[in-house]
Amino acid sequence: MSDLARLERRLMQAIERYERVEARLAAATDGAEIVRLGQEHAELKPLVDAVATLNAKRTEIEGLEAMLRDSAGDKDIAALAQHELDAAKEALPALERAALLLLAPKDKDESASAIIEVRAGTGGEEAALFAGDLLRMYQRYASQRRWRFELESISETGLGGVKEAVASISGAGVFGRLRFESGVHRVQRVPETEAGGRIHTSAATVAVLPQPEGDVDVAIDDKDIRIDTMRASGAGGQHVNKTDSAVRITHLPTGIIVVSQLKSQHQNRVQAMNVLKAKLYDLEREKRDAARAAERKGQIGSGDRSERIRTYNFPQGRVTDHRINLTVYNLPEVLDGSGLDLVLDALAAEDQARKLAALEEEA
Q: Do residues 269 and 227 touch, judged by C-beta distance below 8 A?
């Protein structure tokens, strides 16, 4: 059996499973079973719809081929049939690809909200200024997609740079869209602090973590955490200077520390716990998937300039993503958030290609 035949068989098996689930769902009376079947039904439906579209196109091609054979004596009809047949055949590979991609294993966190961490790497004050640029880029991008962006904590420098910042971004598909941003981002430009006009190279690191819904897969025992209150650091006026509103939570078994310092003490406690849950949830993901752990560790690295996923070159106005060898000359738009989709779309397409290749190898 050929690889294509094996993949076709897997598509048919998925449709048969969908039909069994649909039949059982119509007869089920147990609430828990209805919920479970409903979720599976919803997961399989896009694949079933894609296969139906694919089969309809194949049927259309068969009909046009028959029309072409039957219209040998009528040049006008034959020409029209040939034109439509060429268009249908041209559309067929994309439909086949779309259906096959839906067979690939899904990351259940694809549609989750996310926690994003931005930290200055090597490069001193310039690295901190660049980290601030990245933070604003994600904030603008979130606004353009109508996601909710909420800053959880931030440590700033005297010149307005960002040593480190943590933010939550809420909305449908946030993690699936931004997960490609994890890694070392490098900048090449003349720093504001450079009087001689020399180009410097600095770096900042970005980590994107899925934010679990509620307490899914995350259990935190009270005895495993230590909660401290303190005065917030950085800009904030009298409120920061006079109240101990900031909250720091230390997870004793792992040593993870999270800080929230922007709101009331109660709100900071809630926000810090959410970030801690996201970090612990990501650790569990790593334990379940060794490949994911190795990839994430390799992405972030040490924050050194040589370990980079993307370079922002200001003198040339270009952005280069080194993972897919993509270069675009719209740096201002990327940093504004409006041009980021061009890069993310290319990364998503490459990811789909890898999944399809892996699927074909498994067939």
A: yes
In which band, very low, low, confident or very high, does the pLDDT at 292 lie, cut at 50, 70 and 90? Answer: very low
Q: Which residue, 249, 166, 168, is CA-closest to 210?
A: 168
Tell me how crowded residue 144 is: count the other CB atoms within 10 A of its CB. 13
Report the C-alpha dihedral over residues 143, 309, 335, 125, rounded to 10 degrees. 110
pLDDT, residue 360, reads 64
Contact status, residue 344 vs residue 319, Cβ threshold 8 Å? no
Q: Is 15 exposed, middle or buried (0-12, 13-18, 19+ CB in 10 A)?
A: middle
Strands 162-170 and 148-156: antiparallel
CB-based burial label for 352 (10 Å; 0-12, 13-18, 19+): middle
pLDDT of 300 strictly over 60: no
Other C-beta atoms closer than 10 Å to the C-beta of 80 total 15
Pair of tokens at residue 40: 């599976």
Q: How far is 88 from 120, CA to CA, in rounded Å?
A: 51
Under 8 Å between Cβ of 281 and 255:
no
* Burial class of 57 by CB neighbour count within 10 A (0 to 12, 13 to 18, 19+): middle
- So what's the pLDDT on residue 293? 42
Task: Provide the whole-model pTM.
Answer: 0.64
Integer angstrom CA distances of residue 131 from 96, 153, 205: 42, 14, 8
Please state at what angle helix 75-101 crosses helix 31-70, rounded to 10 degrees: 150
Q: Tokens 């490459």 — which residue?
A: 350
The most distant pair of C-alpha atoms in the chain lies apart, rounded to whole Å, by: 92
Token representation of residue 112:
């989750």
* Residue 330 DSSP SS3: coil
Burial of 53 (0-12, 13-18, 19+ CB in 10 A): middle
**Angstrom distances, CA of residue 3 to CA of 23, 53, 91, 135:** 31, 21, 21, 45
Between helix 3-27 and helix 31-70 the angle, nearest 10°, is 130
Q: Which residues contact 61 (CB under 8 A, 6 or more apart)?
A: 85, 88, 89, 92
